[in-house]
Design brief:
By secondary structure, this protein is mainly α. It has one domain. The chain contains 20 helices and two strands. It has a two-stranded antiparallel sheet. It is globular and about 65 Å long. The chain starts with a helix and ends with a helix.
Amino acid sequence: MNLIHIILSPTILLITLILIPNYKKKIIEKISILFTSTILIQNILLHSQCSEKVKQISILFTNNALIDNTKILINKLCIDKLSTILMLLTSLLIITSILISKKTIYHTHKSLHICLSIIIITLFLTFTTSSLIIFYIMFESSIIPLIIIIGLWGSRKEKIRATYYFLLYTIIGSLPLFITILIIHNKLGTYDTTILQNIPINPYLQLKLFTGFFLAFAIKTPLIPWHSWLPLAHVEAPAIGSVLLAGILLKLGTYGFIRFTIPILPHTAKYLSPIIISISIISIWSASINSLRQNDIKRIIAYSSIAHMGIITAACFSINPISKTGAILLMLSHGLTSSALFTLMSYIYERHKSRLIKNFQGLSYHTPLLSTFIIITSLAHMGTPGSTNFLGEYLCLLGLWETHPSITISSTIGMIIGSIYLLLLYIQITSSKTNLYIKYKTQDLTLNETQAIITLTIPFK
């Protein structure tokens, strides 16, 4: 499967959508589903080919890849297993977003589908380029459609404020990255990461470059204290906005750590790893405790996402192949489970116009299918044995244990605290007492809603 074909497919979709009249909603939906399904199949084939040729998940391609049969290189587009995993996740979440939009988006469908196609294009290029300047352009461009989605289709009155917050943090985060890339080109004469990995860089310059990379990616991840934009964005975003934000766009930060920061600046990354891991542990604890203080289920899931991203960041900077593999697996599984939870909460909000956890009491007696999916997804999200979250967290902690045993214990306790809110949700849903708020609004999942949630739940079990 040719990588160029996969990049061109969403571009053709974008052009096709632009040419279709606005009022042909059904045709727009069918064409979008057809193209995105094709893209998903192409990614599956590409991933299977890459799996055969790349033996380690952490391999990064170099310029001799045309000679080395274990690697694939097309001009400046480089792929490995990490790239194909995130491209697969992107394809799956876009299909889910299209299915969700049938129920939750009531106007300007064409604009929405154009935004989704732009997200595919920019993310695919983000995950496959070896040029820092192209990465920067695509990295920032992928945020623009999501800002539009929150601003146009946000669920409440504060959506404009959330959009401004999101935009402000995006600009703040982009400046250190842009300056760092300019310094790299000025001092080292190239944007190509495959070359930069083999260039010796003096310690002082490494420290400056590392600071720029870290600030940019920490804001996108986000780590505490650069996290305040995320809960607000999630609360005000429509269902598809939350799915894309939690599912894939948060992974851009940790992807930047794995793909650029650590390979280009390995000595500084290792030297500063105790500090970065400490910040990550603070994020885990702070986010977990904050999740217990929330009543709004979307805020709870948002804070749990911050905790999960803290685990992933700590695993990345343990500079251990086991924890790095766990970090990548947890990126994938968190993308699925958090997206599934946000989707299910959007279904509840559509029915009851409430996201307060106290109003879910006795839900299982009136909407058994919806409740079953909530329970399955919650158990997977908290990392119960048998789920991909469990395997990812286990590998992260196993790798951390080899280098930082005391920190591993602290992060484990923080993760357990962060799981309590999901247990409370489980207790509320299965309670024998029914909240009057639920009692007279008993519509269960429709066929279209079931299709959307199955798309997300099958892969993580």
